[in-house]
Amino acid sequence: MNYYGEVEEALRRIGARLREMLSIGAEAVLARCYWRGFEAVAKYRLPKPYRDGLLDKLLRSRRTVLEAKLLVESKRVGVPTPSLLYVNPDLHILLTDFIPGVKLRDVLTKLQEPKDIFRRIGVYAGLLHERGIVHGDLTTSNMLVVGSRIFVIDFGLGDFSNELEQHGVDVHLMLRSLESTHPSLVQPLYAAFLEGYAEVRGEDMRRAVEVKVKEIRRRGRYVVERRLRR
Amino acid sequence: MKSCLVLGIESTAHTFGVGLATPEGVLANVNSEYRPRDGGIHPREAAEHHSRVASSVLVEALKRAAVRIREVDAIAVALGPGMGPCLRVGATLARFLAVRYSKPLVPVNHAIAHIEIARLTAGFEDPLVVYIAGGNTLITTFVEGRYRVFGETLDIPLGNCLDVFAREVGLGYPGTPRVEEKALKGSRYLELPYVVKGQDLQFSGLLTKALRLVKEGARLEDVCYSLVETAYSMLVEVTERALVHTSKEEVTLTGGVARSKLLCGKLKAMAELHNAVFKPVEPQYAGDNGAMIAYTGALAYLNGISIRVEESRIRPMWRIEEVDVPWRVSRT
To answer: Are A114 and A83 part of one and the same domain?
Structure first.
């Protein structure tokens, strides 16, 4: 499906102008736009014809608000994320500033100090979990590299949770994304990641999460994701 | 291509069934369902039912296929997943037939049989499969030699959620069609817990809240409407994510709840958003049945799968990811 017209109309209603469609996911469309002088990225949650109209609205607005909260809280605890510019639960839109970066996945092998980058990503994951934030899709595709900085993006599958299981899944997904795209670098980079994680959460939490990750992988349930996630 | 004739036995839960099939299709499908007088399935009572009907179901199936047991190439049996006492009835009969008539014994995973019969009757090559029944809720697809679970329930199965609700509010059995019938007369959406965690689902909170609403005097039709809307929307949402991730072009629905017009409608609408085709399993093979065990057994036997009688223990917790699927070609 092409949602161009629909997105254009939704953006028009909040006074923004569509520049280009970035991606169409299962749940939402990402588009670049201009909004009050800002170069922005709009995330518009799509209506689903298969569910009750009221339920559809409830879910879309609740998730839009949740994602906005996650973005703001993450930034507040020191994790670089796109800045929230505007959120409209009724229109199911949120706007962030545009980060002119490249996906970590695409530039990983060209980095000067990949270990340092992964130690920092470990710090960021530690900060999120310490605050009770689960990213939900913590992969190298959801890290943007801008010069020497790393931004964590797309909290669309995120939630507030202090459950070890959920934190384990985050770390597991990071490990998986490394394994599927850069198998030869897994060992040193995962070690660097855990080092950074322990800097924030301490050795005990680091060990607890490591054990949890092993348990999750033994279940084998996530095998399909390893193969299918880009 | 070589062919073979396989007799299959199903006894994982409430249904005792015997089917006859070849890798090309089904020759006979005879089933007898145990109906509890009240409450859910009592495993021992179900097993007693299975023992009682086993011989007549077997004889009837052979008669309908117009074959004699000596002409059969192998005996297939669902060794799991399912209820221990029920599984043992089918396994015992299968072992006896294998020994008595010197036939190879073929182990079949019940969930995989639901998937294969759906592929056969929907005419699909490589679908995303949604398997929903009283005892199972999972979204799966074939990747590199096995069916991989993309999402599943973390607590109770969707079919069980609707069955228990129906029973508790006096709608009786079978639960799903009766709740849906009421839902058609409902119109107001009442908020219920919508729990999707990553790719996984939870239905127990939904069940509890729906029952509480009824107790508090909400209109039953509206609760039924809200219950199925919520449960089915959760399921379709996870299926949609799986579809976008895997880029499959076909979606099928199998298991007892595949007879649900409402759920089929939702899955169809979702599939169309992504230019995929939706088609459910044929209704007579939606619930548990012997034919799907025979058919899957035929595919397995043709690919060299059999088991020694001494090793044919039942597997009540047998997961589909543990099963090799050599009859399907891996795409790389």
So the answer is: no
- Gyration radius from chain A CA atoms: 18
Residues of B with CB under 8 A from a CB of A: 141, 143-144, 148-150, 152, 189, 191, 194, 198-199, 225-226, 229-230, 232-233, 236-237, 240-241, 243-246, 265-267, 269-270, 273-275, 321
Q: State the pLDDT at residue B93.
A: 98
Q: Domain of A171: which CATH number?
A: 1.10.510.10
Q: Which of A137, A159, A170, A204 is catalytic?
A: A137
Please tell me whether residues A92 and A110 are part of one structural domain.
no
Q: How far apart are CA A142 and CA A23, in angstroms?
A: 13
Range of the structural domain that residue A191 is part of: 102-228
Q: What is the per-residue pLDDT across B86-127, written as a single tens digit (0 to 9) for each? A: 999 999 999 999 999 999 999 999 999 999 999 999 999 999
Cβ within 8 Å, pair A55-B241: no
Question: For residue B112, what are its two tokens?
Answer: 């995989």
pLDDT at A13: 95
- B6-114+286-322 CATH: 3.30.420.40
Residue B198 pLDDT exceeds 80: no
Q: Which residue of B has its CA nearest to A230?
A: B245
A128 and A51 inside one domain: no
Residue A116 is among the residues annotated as catalytic for this protein: no
pLDDT of residue A1: 63
Residue B278: phi and psi, rounded to 5, are: -110, 135
pLDDT tens track for B251-260:
999 999 999 9
Helix spans in chain A (H) = 4-13, 53-76, 104-107, 114-130, 164-181, 186-219, 223-228
Nearest to B233 among A26, A50, A228 (CB): A50
Comparing alpha-carbon positions, the chain A residue that sits nearest to B332 is A227
- Which residues are within 8 A (CB) of B329 and not within 5 positions of it... i.e. 6 or more apart? none
Q: Could you report the predicted ipTM of this complex, rounded to two decimals?
A: 0.88
CA A129 to chain centre: 14
Helix axes B204-215, B158-168, angle to 10 degrees: 20
Kindly give the parts of chain A with pLDDT less than 50.
222-230
Q: How confident is the model at residue B80 (pLDDT cuts 50, 70, 90)?
A: very high
Distance CA B257, CA B107 (A): 25
What is the arithmetic mean of pLDDT over B66-80?
97
Residues of chain B with CATH 3.30.420.40: 6-114+286-322, 126-278
CATH fit for domain B126-278, picks 1.10.10.10, 3.10.129.10, 3.40.30.10, 3.30.420.40: 3.30.420.40
Looking at residue B144, its pLDDT comes to 79
Q: Do A26 and B150 touch (CB under 8 A)?
A: no
Q: What is the pTM of this model?
A: 0.89
The answer on A18 and A129 residing in a single domain is no
Dist CA A133 CA A149 (whole Å): 21
Q: What is chain B's mean pLDDT, rounded?
A: 94
| Residue ending a domain, choose from A54, A76, A97 | A97
Q: Please tell me the total count of domains within chain A.
A: 2
Higher pLDDT, B173 or B79: B79
